[in-house]
Amino acid sequence: MVRVAFVPDAFERVKTFVPGMDKLIQGGFPKGHVILVAGTPGVGKSILCSQILYFNAMEGKKCLYLNLEQNSSRIESQMIQFGWDPKKAKNLKLLSLDADDPNLVNFLLLELKNSQYDVVCLDSLDSITSNPVSPSNLSFKEESKVFAMDPLNMNRLRLKSIFKALGQSNSTILLTSERVESPGNQGGLTRDTISEFLCDGILLLRIGSVGTAVRRTLAILKMRLTKIDLFAHPFEITETGIRLE
Ligand SMILES: Nc1ncnc2c1ncn2[C@@H]1O[C@H](COP(=O)(O)OP(=O)(O)O)[C@@H](O)[C@H]1O
Ligand SMILES: [Mg+2]
């Protein structure tokens, strides 16, 4: 009989603690990777990310939820209704910032460098990328070259700079992104349509038909260093949070 040697996973992983999810990604996200959480509004992106951060913080991991979408009290009350009291998670920092602040990206990158978080959620990436690039928020070396470029190229370069900096931090980073889904729309996963090529992993959350029912589903479309299936896994939002079936 030929025995297949058991090869342990050499990569350190960050558990999601979402019931049913870790087994789909060999135990968790590869540490330090940048993961895109894409989906239509209301599908559960913010709940998924706050669940992952809350449970990681309760396990002693240093976490940052950077909210650029709504005021922090709304994220906080959404967490509390699931029984995740941010005050109990001493290692979880909730921060709400103005997405139009020209210093936002610089602040974020400095905060990541100085505070050395284990897990970070940026909710949402679109809040940054949909901002028009103005000379006042061009701060990267590469960007100093782009004054003569058209806005699309300028945005592409800016995104590449941001992703490069995020990838260089030791934090595992979740980026939420709103997806426009309409019949016949074969467009990208993000509004900028570039981020999906720059990230290490993609989770796609959808509301759609599963058999005769309309369900929420989660598919792992990309996860570097990880064996994945591409199935749409139905999930539920229960009174204790997200649970995959
Ligand atoms: N306790 C709950 N039970 C079931 N569904 C809930 C509960 N709380 C919120 N939801 C659902 O979650 C949705 C909001 O999820 P959220 O993560 O904020 O979405 P988004 O993808 O826009 O970030 C609401 O539209 C609602 O349908
Ligand atoms: Mg949200």
Automatic annotation (TrEMBL):
Keywords, sorted A to Z: ATP-binding, Nucleotide-binding
InterPro entries: AAA+_ATPase, KaiC-like_dom, KaiC_dom, P-loop_NTPase
Domain (KaiC): residue spans on this chain: 12-245
KW Phosphoprotein (keyword) present: no
Family annotation (PROSITE patterns): KAIC (PS51146)
Pfam families assigned to the protein according to its UniProt record, in alphabetical order: ATPase
Gene Ontology molecular function: ATP binding
SMART domains in the cross-refs: AAA (SM00382)
Top-level lineage group: Archaea
Official protein name in the record: AAA family ATPase
Organism: Candidatus Iainarchaeum sp
